[in-house]
# Entry
Amino acid sequence: MHFNLSEERKMLKESCDRLLNDHYTQYKNHHEVSSSETGFNKKFWQECSEIGMLSALISPNFNGLGGTGEDIMIVFELIGKHLVVEPFLSSGILSITSLINSKDIETSVLDEISSASKIYAFGHSEVDTRYDETYIKTKANYKNDAVFLTGQKSFVLNGDFADKIICTARFSGNDFDQNGFGLYEIDKTHCDIRSYNTIDGYRAAELKFSEIPAKELCKNSDAYNALLETLYAGAFALSAESIGAMQVCFNMTLEYLKTREQFGKPIGSFQALQHRMVDVMIEIEQAKSAVMLAAGTYEADKDTKYKNISAAKNLVGRSGKLVAEECIQLHGGIAMTWEYNLHNYAKRLIMIDHLMGDSDHHLEKFKLYSNY
Amino acid sequence: MDFNFTQNENDFRQEIKDWLSENLSQRISNKVKKFQRLDKNDYEEFMKALSAKGWLAVNWPKEHGGTGWSNTQKHIFEEEIVKAGAPRIVPFGLNMLGPVLMEFGNEEQKKYYLPRILNCDDWWAQGYSEPGSGSDLASLKTKAVDNGDHYIVNGQKTWTTLGQFANKIFCLVKTDSNCKPQNGISFLLIDIDSHGIEVRPIITLDGEHEVNEVWLKDVKVPKENLLGEENKGWTYAKYLLTHERTGIAGVPNSKSAINHLKVIANKTYKNGIPLIQDPLFSSQIAELEIDLKAMEIFNLRAISSAESGKAPVMESSLLKIKGSIIRQKTSDLLRKAIGPQALPYISEQFDEGWNQETIGPEYAGPLAKQYFIYRKISIYGGSNEIQKNIVAKSEFRM
# Structure
């Protein structure tokens, strides 16, 4: 048993971290980037692809260089650390996972993603379906050999700028059935798009479409399995991202406690604040441990994999909230300003709990997979 | 990263299991599982069996008769003895005094005391806390005055766990009052049979006798019973804090307690359905289980970094805090799980051989009592607040 990264992964981590350290800050004024036309920095996205940060999310079976739980953890922890708004989740983990779990997928499609020449987005949620896995109201209509979709997909990350959108749609059964839906690829040019920034600085879109042509990727139990894999891959990646963001919040707060003076001494000398910092520290270590376990069992049987991802997502939901709230409180007034960078991290931590299932959702799933 | 134990470690676990199934008596493990009172013989029977096998001094190096096990092996051993329902290995001689003796004791002391600990000839008690010195241990008042070839000791020690069974006690005593408190403390090894010592029981809130007060009145302690140097006792007491604390989170105990909780929640019904399926209650269990699993990995991370030679001082404090919270929450849920069955308090139920009918299921009897006594976990061994001070001092550098 050991918890160290292999030499190869250490190198991956170092080279990605270096790129983000050296280049990302110069591109980043968080809200400026996300308010731009594309919602992220295309040139930087290209650079990420060039150093293999996208290939790291894809298994060698599909021409990638990684794709294991450990690889995803490393990349997303760094994304959290640097608050990267580029489409690592949408065009990265979600699209990649749904594609490789579809039938007869060509490796060239994944090459297009990893080379950053195509952007994909993933649309499953609808405006009122919360985190339900199979609550799908968008309709798929098969006519002869073709299929046409009608409906609406919500909160589609990078849905406005993506070349292709992978979405779920139902062709039979009631709204909650595990059968009777499929994964389809649609073209955004056919959609009515309303794009907006999210509160944590990402770009998302509402897509509306009526009887638009679609390409079937998989359906029925294949679609169900692919969807679960995708949602859990997303939940796992976000859990790892949360760890990176929590660590930054902690470091910023510690630094501030040492420098900010009140009553003639650094506020960090006050025991009430020190003890709260230790509580934050404990919960970060706990969350880190849960994410490491989920990473270590990412290739295990599905029940174990999903159970540990749900545990991790539940825990980062709880601890992310604690870290965000405590770090704001420990800073005091300065943390309430737009100017001071902490709020960007705090917002991301809280919004991670609004993506791919919140802590309550994953507590229920944990119970399910633990046979309660 | 690799979360699997090696084949050797798995074989090791099996060896421990096999040995326990043959050498831990059913009588004792039944008592432990029913939370019945253990007497001195119960503890000693198990410890002597371990000693004969060479597995008693888990934390000692081989040269002193210890196992020389790795941290991972110790962890596996600890897990298995808890699972099997063994009594705790009384730690005062083995884990507290032993390492201090090895590091700071003179040759004669090592030669005399270490084998006696190993053979269970001596039962040591710990004489640290005093009525006026809990978290602020250095303020202790028990005084040892130099009187030629011996000291005269006067004072009072408290919270002396299982002191009623002990024949020896190691004490922190004041030998110099004209300096910073930490610099005037010495470490004495004292016979409890000495004239002037009285051990009085303290009955804790659960009605049990586990801890004691030890009164020392004009006790003569020969100078050869001084450990290390005079006025260096604080260093020796602190030495332990950097050693062998990876078990501090109590992961095996919490694991077996949560398993117990789930068994009970399966047998208990609310509105006609098992409590384990009640959304409110089962969510509380599930959160706890998630926290515990994360802490288990955190603990293994600390063990693995200790394996590579880094003393996990900060981790030990964090684990002690989180471990106590999880154990207390588990006992809280156990109490809640049984509803009004928690009310009856029948003290005789916890005596060996009691065979009357219980009120409600047998498992209900000890749960409320346990909930109350487990409040101690966040208080003893350096309260959670003290642990936070330690972490803040060492990690935040403020």
In short: The domain at 245-396 of chain B is CATH 1.20.140.10 (Butyryl-CoA Dehydrogenase, subunit A; domain 3).
